[in-house]
Design brief:
The chain is an alpha/beta fold. The protein has 22 helices and 28 strands. It has a 6-stranded mixed beta sheet with strand order 9-14-13-12-10-11. A 5-stranded parallel beta sheet has the order 1-2-3-5-8. Helix 4 packs parallel to helix 6, helix 11 crosses helix 15 and helix 13 packs parallel to helix 14 (about 425-435).
Length: about 750
């Protein structure tokens, strides 16, 4: 039953719309309204029992640190995302937490964003599918999700005041779809509004964003909660549909709401609507169960991590490690793993597996001998030259040198962006020195954001991108290095050759309080493939210890711009392995510039050696559509659309075409419409041509016939100005009749 706020005083209603403290909402026992706890984070529960903060500075209760979204994104596996969501939900129940703040589904616009480790991908479809799986599974445990950060929150630089200046088509096609999918499919308990402004208006009081888009367009019925400290105008926030301010303000902003209602500046019904939504949220209240499956969840964290590791390079089958191999394990991250990011999502892990310990425990790897050297320190302390010399000496005695390198908390974190893609210089020096000495060199990366591989890539034999793999990172990486698990991760973001090649480079992170999204819809691989800009490794890249072949792709139109696609895949190697079927759509020519291809479907399959399977993927009309800013709706262009299967976004292995009837677009004509619009109108155009021809003298008609390109020269001219040139050749009453005809025909016919 919907809660009736009429029994509450205005002051009580206002009080319910802000937190009681840092993590809890206010209770009204006499009205039967309990307090609930909201807490970070996406990949684990950061439940603070003592001093509270929002940047992970103070300790929290021990909980499982699962692989971060940057890793889960590279798994391309909704089932794994769901298993992480369900496990986080179970741990939240153990701590008495009602709402977990996550997942984050913001798009990786720039590889420099300091918080990219909390986000899945540069692609909205992949992000949305994984985010929806996480939310659905978590909420099935009885815990609410808070999908974040809505919206256009793609950098940390000046995040509390920057205005993301971005056109609506780009918002609709790139920055909204992941949120839209989570809202429509998973029905999250809350959506968290971001700190930043969007086109000059703070997200926390942006009615177009929080009501028109989120609630009216997408049907969201839950509560909007602020990011911690994101409220800029509490009264405007209530008017916009921002329900719950966190953390509490000590009553200051509650009084602002009361005063605004009494002064007639705020409709009390809007307050009531927010109260109803917040009270509905408190139905998630539950007592702490204390049931924490420490061992089971660590095992799950290890499984997810192993399936998220991306094998980028493997010359001459350097990996997996064979029996009777002498191994040099080098680098500070082998003993002190970097397994999570800094900031509000920082988890106090129940345990942490170091890679060196896990490698030493390879009981199935017969005859393997291991020698270790630090090589460098994460904080730069110690004798750098001596550390490097020791590591080179150890590498010289080995068959394979494994270098564990990456970024530390000081290099990337919530709160600031990076200014380079490069690894720290001592680590790069170590890679060069070891690669020049060792028989074989394997580089294992631990990083939350993309790092450059340039300068040393060609010197090493194998590269594993480990991202931030959670507390079981060391054992999971060992599983892949020794072939206990076949690598099956694929890049969820492109690795560029240069920072200057990235599409946002010119406009990131902005200046004077504004960041212009000048690249529009051409984010990540959409830009690289369309502009034919080479990258080191494209979106979707991922090698395996076995091989796969796409045998066929068959597409059939089954509805109104809906297509079913059958893709047959065979494991052509000698090992069992998982493969990601990546389905892209190359659209028919359109009146707007579109990427050459976009990911529209995927599936991860597990195949034994020699085994084949056929995957059926369904593409709805949105898979073929673009957002038309004039019609304010999605439009499918008529014509041939290519259905492409790729091993990555740059490498298409099979394709077939489908012909769609699309949408017939008929626009209303005005005197501000161009000459080209008038002559190109399906009904008005022929009438206009007849009328003009009838009014021409023989000499004018001859000139028109001899100069057919004259119309092309003026087709971009507004009709109002064109009329001055033709001096009454088109009677005013005829224009009015034709404009009325265009109004009658205007719209989109399907």
């Amino acid at each position: 039953m919907t809660f009736d706020p009429s029994a509450l005083t205005l002051a009580q209603k206002a009080a319910l719309l802000s937190g009681a403290d840092f993590w809890s909402t206010k209770s009204l026992p006499d009205a039967g309204i309990p307090s609930i706890v909201l807490t970070d984070g996406p990949h684990g529960v950061r439940r603070q029992a003592g001093d509270a903060d929002h940047l992970g500075i103070n300790d929290s209760l021990p909980s499982t640190c699962f692989p971060l979204a940057v890793a889960v994104g590279s798994s391309w596996d909704p089932q794994l995302a769901a298993e992480v969501g369900a496990a986080v939900g179970r741990e939240a129940r153990a701590f008495g937490v009602s709402v977990v703040l996550g997942p984050g589904v913001n798009i990786k616009r720039s590889p420099l964003c300091g918080r990219n480790f909390e986000y899945y991908s540069e692609d909205p479809y992949l992000s949305g599918v994984l985010g929806a799986a996480h939310v659905t599974a978590m909420q099935e445990t009885g815990v609410g999700a808070s999908v974040k950060h809505f919206a256009a929150n793609n950098q940390e630089h000046e995040r509390m005041r920057i205005s993301a200046d971005v056109d609506e088509r780009t918002l609709r096609e790139i920055y909204f779809p992941a949120f839209e999918r989570v809202v429509r499919e998973a029905r999250p308990a809350t959506v968290m509004c971001s700190y930043n402004k969007i086109n000059g208006v703070y997200a926390s009081h942006n009615r177009w964003l929080l009501t028109d888009i989120l609630r009216t367009d997408w049907g969201f019925e839950g509560s909007v909660v602020s990011d911690w400290g994101a409220v800029s105008d509490r009264v405007a926030g209530v008017a916009a549909g921002m329900d719950l301010e966190m953390p509490g303000s000590g009553g200051a902003t509650d009084q602002q709401i009361v005063d605004a209602v009494l002064a007639g500046r705020l409709d009390e019904e809007l307050v009531d609507e927010s109260v109803r939504r917040v009270v509905a949220l408190t139905e998630l209240a539950s007592d702490a169960t204390g049931d924490l499956d420490v061992d089971g969840h660590h095992t799950l964290a290890r499984q997810v991590a192993a399936d998220s590791i991306v094998l980028l390079k493997n010359d001459e089958s350097t990996l997996p490690i064979r029996p009777d191999t002498r191994i040099a394990v080098l680098g500070a991250f082998a003993t002190t793993p970097r397994y999570q990011g800094g900031g509000s999502s920082h988890i106090n892990a129940t345990r942490v597996d170091a890679a060196l310990d896990a490698i030493r425990d390879q009981s199935w790897a017969e005859g393997v001998t291991i020698e270790h050297a630090t090589g460098f320190t994460e904080d730069g302390s110690g004798d750098t030259a001596a550390l490097l010399d020791e590591a080179v000496a150890v590498a010289a005695r080995a068959d394979v040198a494994m270098l564990f390198v990456g970024l530390g908390d000081r290099d990337e974190s919530e709160g600031f962006d990076r200014d380079t893609l490069a690894l720290p210089a001592p680590q790069v020096d170590l890679i060069h020195a070891v690669a020049a000495t060792a028989a074989k060199t394997v580089v294992v990366l631990s990083n939350g954001g993309v790092v450059s591989l340039e300068g040393w890539h060609d010197e090493v034999d194998a590269i594993l991108e480990g991202w931030l793999l959670g507390q079981a990172s060391g054992s999971a990486m060992s599983d892949v290095l020794f072939g206990r698990v076949n690598p099956s991760g694929h890049l969820a973001e492109s690795i560029p050759l240069r920072l200057e090649d990235t599409p946002s480079w010119v406009n990131f992170p902005g200046e004077q309080g504004h960041v212009r999204y000048g690249e529009g819809v051409f984010v990540g691989y959409r830009y690289y493939t369309s502009a034919e800009v080479p990258v080191r490794y494209p979106f979707g890249r991922g090698l395996s210890y076995t091989t796969f072949s796409t045998e066929s792709v068959v597409a059939r139109v089954v509805g109104d711009a809906e297509v079913e696609v059958d893709v047959t895949v065979t494991n052509t190697g000698e090992r069992t392995g998982k493969h990601v079927v990546q389905l892209y759509v190359a659209p028919a020519p359109a009146p707007v510039r579109r990427p050459v291809r976009e990911l529209r479907g995927f599936a991860k399959v597990d195949l034994g050696a020699g085994e084949s399977t056929t995957v059926t993927l369904r593409l709805d009309r949105r898979a073929f559509a673009y957002w038309d800013i004039e019609l304010d709706r999605w439009v499918v262009t008529a014509g041939d659309h290519l259905i492409q299967v790729g091993s990555d976004a740059a490498t298409i292995t099979r394709e077939t075409a489908v012909t769609l009837s699309g949408d017939t677009i008929v626009r209303e004509l005005t005197l501000a419409s161009t000459v080209g619009d008038w002559f190109g109108h399906p009904e008005v155009g022929p009438l206009l041509m007849q009328g003009m021809s009838a009014g021409m003298t023989a000499e004018q008609a001859q000139q028109a016939a001899e100069n057919p390109d004259q119309l092309k020269m003026v087709e971009s001219m507004p009709m109002q100005q064109f009329l001055a040139f033709v001096q009454g050749a088109i009677p005013e009453e005829s224009l009015e009749q034709m404009m009325q005809l265009s109004r009658s025909a205007a719209g989109v016919a399907r």
